[in-house]
Each structure stands twice: as C-alpha cells, then as structure tokens.
C-alpha cells in the first residue's frame, strides 16, 4: 500500500512539491497504514480454502452428485454455452455465499434511517423470500451526504407541483423537442453555483461520462487516467478510441514522468505528436476516501499544456466550505479546471449528471453529445429537485438550511473519523472526506461485519474483490448531514463491539482504546 | 609471368593437396566441427544478418525542447453558432398531445408519446404518491441499498407482461442496450447486426469489442449469406468454433426506418445456425400487436424463442429508463456484469411508479388502445401517400414514419423550411437528428410520430399543412 513519505522526492523531475501553491487552510495528509502481516496471511489462506471448496463443489455439480441450483439454459443442445464456467467461478463459490449482504431491498426514504425489507433464504442465498416485516436501521450505506433525501418539506412540495405542471417526462431528445424551460433554468443556476461560464445537464451520471468523453477526445489523443477511476470514466475513455495510460493512484511524480515520456515519444508507432492530452481524475474516490491533489494537478497541467477532467461525483456539495466541491476545498481557480463533471445522485438526492466549463466547451457538447442527440432529456420533477437544492446551497446565509447542512456534514465527518481512528480501526482516506473506509481484509470478515451490524440495527456497505484489491476488503461508512451525534455514537458503540468480535482493531498507529476514552 | 608450370610443380601441388587431405583425417573430431561451425557463422554474418540500427537516446536538453515545442489542439473545435442544436425550441408545460412554445399552442407530432401517457392524470397521481413515500432520488446503486421494493415490483410486472421469467430495469434508456450487449458478447464472439440499428445499439456493439458482421437492412438473404460463410469457416476449425458465441442483434420496429424485421425467418435460421437473438423493441413495445406486446405478437412467433428482449420506458410508457426481459438464466447474469446496472444509481422511485401505472393502463382488458393506434397509423399512411410528393418510409401500421422529399430535392435545408412552416401553422414536427459517426447514416428525413389520441380532423389538418409546405418548398 502506498506510504506517505516525503522522502520520495529524490526522484522528482521538476520542483513539484517544493513550490506548489499552499491552500488557505492546511491540507491534512492522508495516511495509509501498512497491512499487518498476520491479516494478509489469513486473508490469502481464506481465499485458498474458498478456492479448494469451490473446485470441489464444482466437481460434485458436474458429476450431478449435487443438484445444480440456479437456472438452466432454455435452448436445445448444440448452442455454444452462454457463460464460460471459469468466468463465473468467483460468483458461484465466493459471492453466492455472502449474497445476502448485497442488493438489500429497502422500503422507505434512504435518509438517516432506513427501513429494510426483511428476507430469509432456505437454500443458502440462491433465492430469497420476504417475510413481510421491516427492520428499522441507521443508514450508513446510501450516498446521502447533505441529507436532502426527504419525502416531505418544501423541496418535496416543489417536486409535486412540477409533476402536476410538467408531467413526468418530455419523451423527446434534447436536440429535437425535449428542451424545457426548466432545463435552461437548471443549467444557468448550475453555472452560477459552480462559478463557470455555462453548464449542461444529463439524465444519468454514468452516461454523462460514457457518452461525452468520446466527444472531447478521439484517435490520436492521449488519456492519462488515475488507477482507481470509476468504470464510467474507463468506458468513456475506451469508447473514444484514444490511447489510455494509467498512473498510480494520486502519484504526481509518476504522472509527470508519464507526461514527459509520452510527449517526447509521441503517438505509438508513427511518433506523430499527440493531438491532445487529457488527465482524468476524480474529486473524492469512493472506495479509498482519498482526495485528488488538485493544486499539483493544475500546476502540472499548465506546465505540460494538458487538459484536466475532474469528476466530482462524490465531492460536489460534500466538500468545501461553501459546498462547491474539491475546487472550493483547495481554494483553486475554477477556470483552471477545463472540464468539471459531477452527478446529482449523491449530494442532491436526485438523478443525473452535469458538465460545466467554458461556453465553447458546452456549445460543442450540445452539438456533438450522444445524449443530447439520442437520449430522452431529464425528467422535470428530478430537475425541480436539483433546482431547489441548488437554491438552498447558493444561499450564503449561515442561518439557512444550505449552510447548516454543509457545516453539519463537516462536523459529522470530523467527529466520526477521529473517534473511529482513536478506537483502533485502520481507516483510509483523507481526514475531511465523508467517505470513511475501515479495513476488514478477509472475505469472511466482510460478511460477518455486515451481518453483525445489521443485527444491531446499522446498515453498512462492505466491499471486497473485485471492487477493491484482493487483500483489502473493507467496510465503507457514508456519512450524512442527516445523522445526529446520538446516531453516530450508537454506530460507534456497535462498531466497537463488532470490531472486538472480529478482531479488527489492530492499528499500530492508533492503538485501540475503548469508546468512552475517545471523547474529543 | 613466372616460370612455366611443369609437371614437377603440378605433382608437388597434388602431393601438397593430398597431404592436406590426409591431415584432415588426423585432426581431432572436435576441431573439425569447430572449424565448420566458424565457417558457417561467418557465412551467416555476411549473407543473412541485417544491420540493427543503433537506438538514438535523446539527451535531457532535446527532451525538454520537444516538450516545450509541443502544442495541443484546442480542446473543442470551433463551433458554428447557427447549428440547429444551439437554436432548439424551448418548451413549456406538459409535452402531451399539444405543446406550448412561447405561449402558442401547437399539435405535437414530434415526441415519442405514442399512447399519450405524458400528462396522464392517473400516472401523475401515482408518481406524487411515490414522492410522498420515498422522496425523489434512490441515493445508491442497486447493490448498496438502492434497490427499492417498487423496482422489484416493476421488474415483476414487466416480466409478467411479456410472459417471461425475469425482468431487469435500468435507469436510462440509452444505457440499457449499450450495457447489455457487452455483458454477454466478448472479444472472441461474433455479432450479426442489421445496418439500420439505432445509435445506442451501435455503441453497445462497439463497447463489446466483438467481431461484427453487418448485413443490409432487413435483407434476410444477406444475413443468410453471412451465416453460410461463417458456417463454412467453422467447419474448418470445429474446436475453435465451439468456443465462439454468436448473437443476432435486431430491432423489432426500426427507429431509423419504421419497418418491421422479418422475425419468423430469423427464428428458423436461429435453430439452423445456432445463434442467439437479442431484439430491441424500444419503438414496438406498446405500439405493435393486438395487446401491445410487440413484434412477437404481430408475427405470431413464440416469444420464448427470443433469448432477450430489451426495450425502453421512455417512449410509449412515458417514464424514464429501460428494461430487458428474458429467462432467468439469461437475465440474472446482468445483475453482476452489466456496467450500466452495477455501477450506476437506480431509477428514482417516482419514475418506477409512473411506469407501473402505465403498465396497468396498458393491461386493461377493453382499452382497445393498440388496435386504435394501428388503425390510425394505417389511415395516416394512406393520407400521406395521397399527398404525392413525399416519400413515406415505414410500415403502414407503424405509428413512426419517416417523411422525405423525392431524391435530389431531399436536403436538410428544405426539410427545416417545412418544419418551420408547419410550426407557424400550429403543427410541431421535427427532423430526425443523427451524429455524423453513425455506421450507416440514414437519409435526412422528418420523423412523424402518431399520438393515439389524435382525431381524424387533426390528421387531415396535418396533411393539409404538409401539402402546403410541399408546394412552397418546391416552388
């Protein structure tokens, strides 16, 4: 795991790190503790045992000694099998054992608390039945950073009015007959909020990346993308046809080396100069909880004349003293970032994505974007939700709801992270990011932590391979402005219990302490 | 000239030569081998080895110069401010049978509102109830507390509507088919694709990185020819052929042309050449067939023979999103490997509620919606043909038709003029918009869409306006 050591500077090609602009408030360093040897050992052993059992069960299934669960092919024999059996080995033998931890259906607003539909399984997670009961839990799994997921209040009233006056959909593409006055209003409000010249909104965050990166870069261009970038960015880069090179996560020295090497050597084989170079980063990385190093990136981009694409899916609304994302957090100039992208699903509790930047950029996207030409435009009630939230966030008054929520989230983040770290958990990520991953390492602990917390009334998200590296399974807490101090205290107490049960609190940097001793 | 060569010299030479040969016999064996090896090496070096160029290493100074000299293109190319995408009509209010632009109403023949569900009161009420129960956003992907019970209900209803085992919903129509195809078809597989498919399907085909074989639009003979070629190729290497999956990607009713695919013959060929059929019924769902169940109902084909039917909730259903239905064996795979499903937030509950209510209305026994729609389409088709001067593309029962002018007259400029003229007379129509990198760019055309609630007088009015426009534009 990457270590945070300033001593690595002997390999720098330029003076990055020595003269970088210092933001107004000090950025606290991210700390990634080394994996304890014992954990790595037990995790690998865990996987070996799972593999042996999996191989053995597959043998039994092929010999028809064990009944094959799950469905079978409809077509007569002679067709090439639809799935290779080795491709779904992991699904059948590892994922299926812990499938009850994922895809849990809910029956209420995904707010600070959540109503889960209780389900039971008779055949070891191959099929589920609902008992009809609901389990009330504290919700640490939904991306509801600012707590705007509500079914009552002024915003919900606005949404209901907009359904009555504009219907649920326009049923036409934006370039044909699908542009409504609300869309224009949303775009101008968004540009005002972010401080850019213009903005454009789409109906799905994933599609915003996948359908618009091909309009910006094409054959003959170079894309430098961070190791941990989201699937939508990877898909968009692949569909564009440009050459993609990956640099180590947040490693500016590696990025600079790649920039220098690739500008000098040019396009592969023909060695023609590149048409454009695009650096793609995210604001907050959802699995690590880390922030991108924006001041250094901007300096690099200016030095080498590259373009910067910043995906603020998780950071818009959640980071920054005014809620305007990592650009606001690092106090950088928003005109330095060429393309600002974000989604409305997380902090705005709606659905959709946006791109903001200079007017020429947005005009080009209006003409050339796949989504504007072929896909149906955003649904009016969803647009209304985003407009209402934007109005609240633009309001600078400290007494009003927008600022209160931003401050509450910042306080929650600080409080929760401090106490969790002091209790001895190994926590990754930046101290100010509302995404808090605590390491679990082995797949069995992933399942156990999830189920034990559910028994105690807390809904968490635990992830393992392939979303994370093989050895680094983790639980990811998503904090929200709708969590009160009491809720967080309850979660921490339960986490302490379960952490002891699973022997998780093994941090060497912060030796474990009981809950009551970690008061701030 | 030296002394004349005489017999003695020759004899001496012969003796020398003979003793040389004798000495060869006396040398150790390894020495001989070594000498032969050396001779062969010299021969090879002289005759066969090409001189390798010495790799140039650039100095730091040269590298810095290259870096300083390099200039990128501007991020975006210069933009034409007169491009139609920058001067779109901005609408207000409900985009239903009539729409309002700048305060003036006009009849709507442009949006995909086949069954006039946009603005329907029942659907709006259900959507409002969903907002009051669940809020607006679902705040998470399906795997992490984004699955709401209303999603499960919608999936079940869709599967029941088509009489399939399972359904799966996506939160965006474009991403549905674009995520489904790469989930099944990988680099080694073969896709037989119709040339006239929609752009979203083209993106799915591109993202899958499979081998693509395009056949001419709706030309079943061309498809058979490609299949026969592939079959011949397979027989040469049957072991490899047994690892290559084959898929046929078609649409039920083609959006770019308005015609229906020849499904029965394609299903026959499926069992002969052993490929799977993925059919996209975005336009034909809710418009074709006695009960709106699409092309399988129209052609009277057993639906279970189609491996996967994908469609959208954005056209006839009047909500947002997309879905796919099929057997559990096929559909379940997408829950872990379709990118647009796993890595994206789920559909907002109010849109799912709207879709469920729309399905309820479609399911009602004596609505007669679909027969009315097919009937009116037929009548409109005849009326359009009567105008004489327009080329009308599309089946007569299809509610989506493409109008274009005859041959050389057919330019975007003239079509734009017709659209503007119609707007001044109170009819909203639109030109079908395409991007230039379509695989098979269709001819410019006006895409006419029929709303089931249009009356006969309104259809007559449409034809009158089109007639007048035609006269003006060809004058």
Automatic annotation (TrEMBL), chain A:
GO terms for cellular component: endoplasmic reticulum; membrane; serine palmitoyltransferase complex. Keywords: Acyltransferase, Endoplasmic reticulum, Lipid metabolism, Membrane, Pyridoxal phosphate, Sphingolipid metabolism, Transferase, Transmembrane, Transmembrane helix. The keyword Transmembrane helix applies. It comes from the Eukaryota. The keyword Cell division does not apply. Coiled coil: none annotated. It holds the Pfam family Aminotran_1_2. Its main location: endoplasmic reticulum. Its EC number is 2.3.1.50. It is found in: Endoplasmic reticulum; Membrane. InterPro entries: Aminotrans_II_pyridoxalP_BS, Aminotransferase_I/II_large, AON_synthase_class-II, PyrdxlP-dep_Trfase, PyrdxlP-dep_Trfase_major, PyrdxlP-dep_Trfase_small. It is an enzyme of class 2 (transferase). It catalyses: L-serine + hexadecanoyl-CoA + H(+) = 3-oxosphinganine + CO2 + CoA. This is serine C-palmitoyltransferase. It comes from Adineta steineri.
UniProtKB/TrEMBL annotation, chain B:
Pathway: Sphingolipid metabolism; Lipid metabolism; sphingolipid metabolism. Residues 108-463 form the Aminotransferase class I/classII large domain. One of its GO terms (cellular component) is endoplasmic reticulum. SUPFAM superfamilies: PLP-dependent transferases. InterPro entries: Aminotransferase_I/II_large, AON_synthase_class-II, PyrdxlP-dep_Trfase, PyrdxlP-dep_Trfase_major, PyrdxlP-dep_Trfase_small. This is Serine palmitoyltransferase 1. Its EC number is 2.3.1.50. Keywords: Acyltransferase, Lipid metabolism, Membrane, Pyridoxal phosphate, Sphingolipid metabolism, Transferase, Transmembrane, Transmembrane helix. GO terms for biological process: ceramide biosynthetic process; sphingosine biosynthetic process. The chain crosses the membrane at residues 29-48. It is an enzyme of class 2 (transferase). Its cofactor is pyridoxal 5'-phosphate. It comes from the Eukaryota. Belongs to the class-II pyridoxal-phosphate-dependent aminotransferase family.
